[in-house]
Amino acid sequence: MRDALVAAAFRLFLERGYEQTTVDDIVALAGVGRRSFFRYFPSKEDVVFPDHERCLADMTAFLAASGGEHEPVRRVCDAARLVLLMYAENPSFSVQRYRLTKKVPGLRAYELSVVWRYERALAEYLRGRFHDRPGGDLQADVIAAAVVAAHNNALRSWLRSDGQGDASATVDHALAYVQSAFGAPLATPAPTARPAFPALPSSPAAPGEEPQEDVVVVVSRRGAPLWRVVQEIETAFGRD
């Protein structure tokens, strides 16, 4: 019944347009009553995004099942890949939805609210993992936003190509930027100390002033051995 309502809705959206299609039109084509429609979808907008509630529940459960052995940034990147899998299950439907959403401002606003909920789920998990870090909440919010931005950039690129090519490879490439900037290296265990953020670029000096030096910030656990801290500082300065 749920799939029949989605199929009927998109057939009408493509034929008549989203704004010109009513819930009554959808249930008439599907051969059911209005009560059946609202049993599955609270509104007409929800029929355009029928799988996001399930995906959000899967993501929340995935993050809740995380343990201390999971590197946090890698874990949220893996959680974001669940959204990609949802889109890749039915490429033609995903492309149709993408095209429809681009044309209807109300759907774009609805989609933004859905994306915000994904970002909040990622941030809440990271806040729990970073609660003992100085500025942990800020780091959690920044990383969650970066994961969503990288994932969505790659996903939209795949949708613009009409679902052609390897979506997983495209998303993996994008998320690798987030991992390299904020997480532990993919090929090695998480280090005990690492640069928290890239070196800040120096500002141009005004005439007559000495040029400003770059600033490097390194965050280390209290119990980290001194050799590891020195190694990370040397790496941040680009020295062997």
How would you describe this protein?
The structure is a single chain. The protein is an all-alpha fold and 240 residues long. The protein has three domains: 1-45, Arc Repressor Mutant, subunit A (Orthogonal Bundle), CATH 1.10.10; 49-182, Tetracycline Repressor, domain 2 (Orthogonal Bundle), CATH 1.10.357; 193-236, no CATH class. 65% of the residues lie in helices and 2% in strands. The protein is built from eleven helices and two strands, in the order ααααααααααββα. It has helices spanning 2-16, 23-30, 34-40, 44-48, 52-64, 72-89, 91-103, 105-129, 136-160, 167-182, 226-236; strands at residues 193-195, 218-220. The chain has a two-stranded antiparallel ribbon. Helix 1 packs across helix 2. The longest helix has 25 residues, at 105-129. The radius of gyration is 23 Å and the shape is elongated. The relative contact order is 0.09.
Strand and helix layout:
Elements: H1 2-16, H2 23-30, H3 34-40, H4 44-48, H5 52-64, H6 72-89, H7 91-103, H8 105-129, H9 136-160, H10 167-182, E1 193-195, E2 218-220, H11 226-236
Antiparallel strand pairs: 1-2
Helix pairs in contact: 1-2, 5-6, 5-8, 6-8, 6-9, 6-10, 7-8, 8-9, 9-10
